[in-house]
């Protein structure tokens, strides 16, 4: 029995909105992670729809198998979702990548699709490999050993350009000639520095889902983008840098994208509580009996009316971001959230009957010390007297295109010590979930590294581990002080200046 029929076909049968098309130019749109993760990506779904709207182009999806080792033992070719054709049997193999830690998955996906991962080992008869998504906007340089084309910025502006180039070219070099110099197009075979980013014009917005499925991480949820960009000045975040100037969509524009049969809607935006129509759209949807999910509600803008709408939409736990363990560090990050804002939100959540409040934050910030952790612990105890508290703690990972690019990583040992203290002192007070300090270190290396980091990933993509990463990075010359405090920065080529950035785009709260 084929993998497509036993593993993919049941997923396909559960979808609503799938596009089936045949055309001379075949595009495989791959997501280098599980199906459930990829189908929760709004950008991935938008690009899928746009390629299928292009004349002469048919786009089908592919995902990394849940158990890729077991899949490889079957000897089968990786199939596309829509028809089961070989994913590598196409003119364009496009990957949408959200996370730095999916770097090894990108390489593995090219491999299981029957393609040579290294760009220099592919020939003119192989598909053009194009990589886009949040990862490329954050740092494209580790991808240069693998990609023929790297897309930086909004994909909506790029799909028509790439589609026309596919229609008009018969060789790889002709394709390069047609896309060379376009905003957002980075050609590693020709370019050294990343280009001007692509910014989608307002008429191509809002972004909205094409497919709804119960097998997404956001099960049966239709996503629609309320805003792109962000007006806030937070220094750690890539929202404004990655997504361009703040562009708010009109309330009716959003409502018009939502089909009548939809039962759950997720509003997406970097700072939804700054979006002027959040309450109107939310109330309109909940009055229709639609469940509501939201991303990025800031504690300084929460009021009882907004909280009531979210509760009517089915939200049971109120989610906000502190983003730093102390008031002093929130000011350092220009977050604009005070202790009073967080306390007010906790009181509103309790008064309206929410089951608890979830607070996201980072530790390992540059000026952080033990007093900041003490403040976090004491403040969490204060919050817990108001409502049940869950803390989501992530080590701070400095990113390119932010003022923190040259800041050192906080150090694995330092972060682990602080996490242990938090866990010990709050184990009976709050629910605690944290990201691994060691894997955050790997993310920090990928987020600021160059092609040598890509080659390190290539050497270990079949047997990835922290130890393998340390050894591979040493072999490519990445200087590391892992056991002491921070890895030294190996600057990639390109522009290193700090750019103004803004608010934190959190995960969708449902």
TrEMBL record:
Transmembrane segments: none
Superkingdom of origin organism: Bacteria
SUPFAM superfamilies the UniProt entry points to: beta-lactamase/transpeptidase-like (SSF56601), Radical SAM enzymes (SSF102114)
Limits of the Radical SAM core domain: 216-430
Single Gene Ontology MF annotation: catalytic activity
Listed name of the protein: Radical SAM protein
């Amino acid at each position: 029995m084929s993998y497509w029929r036993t593993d993919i076909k049941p997923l396909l049968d559960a979808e609503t909105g799938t596009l089936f098309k045949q055309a001379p130019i075949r595009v495989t749109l791959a997501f280098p992670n599980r199906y459930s993760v990829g189908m929760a990506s709004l950008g991935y779904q938008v690009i899928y729809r746009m390629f299928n709207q292009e004349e002469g182009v048919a786009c089908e999806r592919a995902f990394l198998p849940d158990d890729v080792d077991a899949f490889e033992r079957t000897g089968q070719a990786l199939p596309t979702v829509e028809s089961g054709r070989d994913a590598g049997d196409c003119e364009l193999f496009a990957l949408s990548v959200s996370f730095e830690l999916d770097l090894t998955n990108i390489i593995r996906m090219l491999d299981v699709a029957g393609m040579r991962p290294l760009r220099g080992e592919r020939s003119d008869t192989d598909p053009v490999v194009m990589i886009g998504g949040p990862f490329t906007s954050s740092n494209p340089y580790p991808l240069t050993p693998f990609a023929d084309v790297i897309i930086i910025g909004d994909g909506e502006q790029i799909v028509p350009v790439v589609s026309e180039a596919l229609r008009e070219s018969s060789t790889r070099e002709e394709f390069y000639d047609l896309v060379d110099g376009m905003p957002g197009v980075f050609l590693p075979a020709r370019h050294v520095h990343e280009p001007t980013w692509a910014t989608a014009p307002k008429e191509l917005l809002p972004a909205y889902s094409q497919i709804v499925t119960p097998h997404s991480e956001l099960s049966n949820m239709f996503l629609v983008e309320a805003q792109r960009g962000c007006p806030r000045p937070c220094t750690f975040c890539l929202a404004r840098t990655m997504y361009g100037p703040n562009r708010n969509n009109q309330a009716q524009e959003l409502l018009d994208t939502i089909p009548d049969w939809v039962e759950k809607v997720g509003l997406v935006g970097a700072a939804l509580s700054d979006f002027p129509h959040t309450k109107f759209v939310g109330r309109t949807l909940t009055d229709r009996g639609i469940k509501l999910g939201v991303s990025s509600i800031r504690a300084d803008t929460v009021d009882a009316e907004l909280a009531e709408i979210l509760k009517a939409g089915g939200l049971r736990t109120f989610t906000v971001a502190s983003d730093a363990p102390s008031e002093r560090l929130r000011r350092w990050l220009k977050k604009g959230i005070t202790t009073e804002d967080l306390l007010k939100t906790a009181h509103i959540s309790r008064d309206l009957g929410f089951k608890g409040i979830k607070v996201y934050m980072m530790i390992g910030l540059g000026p952080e010390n033990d007093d900041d952790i003490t403040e976090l612990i004491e403040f969490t105890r204060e919050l817990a007297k108001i409502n049940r508290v869950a803390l989501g703690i992530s080590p701070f990972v400095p990113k390119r295109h932010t003022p923190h690019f040259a800041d050192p990583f906080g150090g694995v040992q330092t972060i682990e010590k602080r996490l242990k203290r938090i866990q010990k002192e709050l184990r009976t007070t709050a629910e605690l979930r944290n990201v691994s300090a060691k894997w955050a270190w790997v993310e920090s290396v990928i987020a600021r590294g160059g092609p040598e980091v890509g080659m390190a990933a290539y050497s270990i993509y079949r047997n990835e581990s922290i130890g393998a990463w340390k050894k591979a990075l040493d072999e490519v010359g990445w200087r590391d002080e892992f056991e002491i405090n921070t890895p030294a920065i190996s600057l990639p080529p390109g522009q290193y200046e700090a750019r103004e950035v803004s608010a934190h785009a959190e995960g969708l709260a449902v």
